Amino acid sequence: MTISHPTQAQVLHNYIGGHWTPSEASETQEIHNPATDEVLALVPLGTRKDIDQAVEAAAAAFPDWRATPPQERARYFFKLRQLLDENREELARLITTEMGKTLDDARGEIQRGIENVETACGIPSLMMGYSLEDGAAQGIDEEVIYQPLGVFAGITPFNFPFMISFWFWPYAVACGNTFILKPSEQDPMVQKRVFELIEQVGFPAGVINMVNGGKEAVNALLEHPRIKGISFVGSTRTAQYVYAQAAAHGKRVQASGGAKNAIVVMPDADLDMYLGTIMNSCFGAAGQRCLANSLILTVGGAHEAVRARVVEAASRLKIGMDWQKVQNLVLSSRLPRATASLPPLRGD
């Protein structure tokens, strides 16, 4: 729901140039706890002016950050890794509260994000170039040096509101670039907490920035002439749009879309061993991830036994807010599509 009238809910701020900055947006969107429908906060639907401010800050920070030796840049990530580890339980509970996956699932997401920070700590070795005598031809030596380019941006999805941002910005920033993150407007609160920790680390102002928003903010990132590249994860349709628009504006692009997955169960499959894997694939992260299984293909005599076991296991899933077995849809707008599939399932 998009609203523009006053409310008691907290309005999230952007993080630009080392400061928490109110958005220029006139519209906000409610962030709901999907288990209780409680309004947790309001996220501003950021404008092109917000993006312009972030790009200006990132571009201004780039020369000094680029000139910082890689080993010095890496030290910031050692500090960040420690803070993320110390606050991992709080971060996981934020994910469960605003996104709806189980707490154990959220804890796993935090761990994967931290692992990317750990990898970025090794950037002095990872970004080493090489040289080779006569590497190009006889009498022509070859030398390769990896150099940062400038301002990059990331656009991340709702289903992994913590982890996926860490696929992108730690590597870009550790390599000497500056960065702007646009988290999903559906569940941006965990990134707010992450940027509070980033602020504690003490990265130079403008090196890493965050702007909240929806499509207008995305388009501004894709079209801005001073942004060198875009990283995106989301639906296939949106990935195609991001790739086309960013490429048309001369940017490097990596755009990852969704997937359609199937599980094939053979007649000799050990269901006691694999039932947990099937259920996790179908329902893990509340069924809202690109690797979620949407089709079980049974072969021969496996059909009846597999159907009975899956139905029985699914009947034990709990919907609600109990921190341990919670599974919720992050958006009420997805409910019609989900419930539309229930009558034929009951009929089977």
Automatic annotation (TrEMBL):
<dbReference type="InterPro" id="IPR015590">
    <property type="entry name" value="Aldehyde_DH_dom"/>
</dbReference>
<keyword id="KW-0520">NAD</keyword>
<feature type="domain" description="Aldehyde dehydrogenase">
    <location>
        <begin position="20"/>
        <end position="324"/>
    </location>
</feature>
<dbReference type="InterPro" id="IPR016161">
    <property type="entry name" value="Ald_DH/histidinol_DH"/>
</dbReference>
<dbReference type="InterPro" id="IPR016163">
    <property type="entry name" value="Ald_DH_C"/>
</dbReference>
<dbReference type="InterPro" id="IPR016160">
    <property type="entry name" value="Ald_DH_CS_CYS"/>
</dbReference>
<dbReference type="GO" id="GO:0006210">
    <property type="term" value="P:thymine catabolic process"/>
</dbReference>
<dbReference type="Pfam" id="PF00171">
    <property type="entry name" value="Aldedh"/>
</dbReference>
<dbReference type="GO" id="GO:0004491">
    <property type="term" value="F:methylmalonate-semialdehyde dehydrogenase (acylating, NAD) activity"/>
</dbReference>
<keyword id="KW-0560">Oxidoreductase</keyword>
<protein>
    <recommendedName>
        <fullName>methylmalonate-semialdehyde dehydrogenase (CoA acylating)</fullName>
        <ecNumber>1.2.1.27</ecNumber>
    </recommendedName>
</protein>
<dbReference type="InterPro" id="IPR010061">
    <property type="entry name" value="MeMal-semiAld_DH"/>
</dbReference>
<dbReference type="InterPro" id="IPR016162">
    <property type="entry name" value="Ald_DH_N"/>
</dbReference>
<dbReference type="GO" id="GO:0006574">
    <property type="term" value="P:L-valine catabolic process"/>
</dbReference>
